[in-house]
Each structure stands twice: as structure tokens, then as C-alpha cells.
Design a protein that fits this description.
Structural class: alpha+beta
Number of domains: 1
Strand content: 35-45%
CATH superfamily: START domain
CATH class: Alpha Beta
Number of helices: 3
CATH topology: Alpha-D-Glucose-1,6-Bisphosphate, Chain A, domain 4
Number of strands: 7
Helix content: 10-25%
Radius of gyration: 16 Å
Distance between the termini: 52 Å
CATH architecture: 2-Layer Sandwich
Length: 150
């Protein structure tokens, strides 16, 4: 007998999925996700400035994003690239420097649909519901910034 809940994740652990349709090509959006000078233009929620973006764009390569908060604190996000499929898919680990023991995973999928691209951000293995809620708001605002610069 199989457990009916075996494929259902425990409450609060389901992946966070944020979707947006943006008027840009997948190639343009992929560049915005992978070029440091472009990441600095849009990455971070409202009121947050991405002051540093470092990208070693290869499987196993590292990235680093420093976000300056309104109160002057810096939040550093680091990880490594797990999959790079230009211009449609990017997968990377995600770790915030103040919680180095917890690593989550982000998958970005870019699907062309005529003159627009559907952007899907899937964030998995988030530590808890409070962090999930914070990330949901953060990703929504990041995608607002991305749409504004492309």
C-alpha cells in the first residue's frame, strides 16, 4: 500500500512560484539575469540597491549579489550555477549570508510567446513560511524591476 501523501510536500515546503509576462525576448532577459552590469540595474526589491554583482557563468561557477538595504545593511546572496541553458533556463543554489546553513534552489524559465516572454521563477527548499512570504514579495518586486529595465 502506498501513502497517499507521499508526493505531497509538508505544509509550507511547497516551491514558491512567481510568474510574469515581460515585453522582451528570452535572449534579452537571459542576459539581464547573467550579466553583472545588468543584474545591478534591476535585482532587489523596491528600496534595495544591488551594489555588487559577480557572475562566473558556468555550471559549478559561483555568483554573488550584494544588496544595500534602506537601513544601510548589506545582504549578500551567494550560490553556484547548477544548469545553464541559454536563453531559456537557469538553475542556481541560493544562500543568504546571514543563514549560511540553509541552501535553497532557484530555477528561472524563459518561454517566448510572440513578442513577450513568460518568466517563471521557482524557488525551492525555503527554510520556513516566514522566509517564503518574504521571498514571494522580493521576487515579485525583482520582476517589477526587471520588466522596467528591459
Amino acid at each position: 500500500m502506498t501513502d497517499a501523501n507521499a508526493s505531497t510536500p509538508p505544509p509550507g515546503t511547497a516551491p514558491l512560484i512567481v510568474r510574469r509576462t515581460i515585453h522582451a525576448t528570452p535572449e534579452r532577459l537571459f542576459a539581464a539575469w547573467t550579466r553583472p552590469e545588468q543584474l545591478r540595474e534591476w535585482f532587489g526589491p523596491r528600496g534595495v540597491e544591488c551594489t555588487l554583482a559577480e557572475v562566473d557563468l558556468r555550471v559549478g561557477g559561483a555568483y554573488r549579489l550584494d544588496n544595500l538595504l534602506p537601513d544601510g545593511r548589506i545582504v549578500r546572496i551567494v550560490g553556484t550555477y547548477e544548469a545553464i541553458e541559454p536563453p531559456t533556463r537557469l538553475v542556481f543554489s541560493w544562500m543568504i549570508d546571514d543563514a549560511p546553513s540553509h541552501v535553497s534552489r532557484v530555477t528561472v524559465e524563459l518561454t517566448a510567446r510572440g513578442s513577450v516572454t513568460d518568466v517563471v521563477v521557482r524557488h525551492e527548499h525555503i527554510a520556513n513560511e516566514a522566509t517564503r512570504t518574504s521571498h514571494a514579495s522580493g521576487w515579485e518586486q525583482c520582476l517589477d524591476g526587471l520588466a522596467a529595465v528591459v
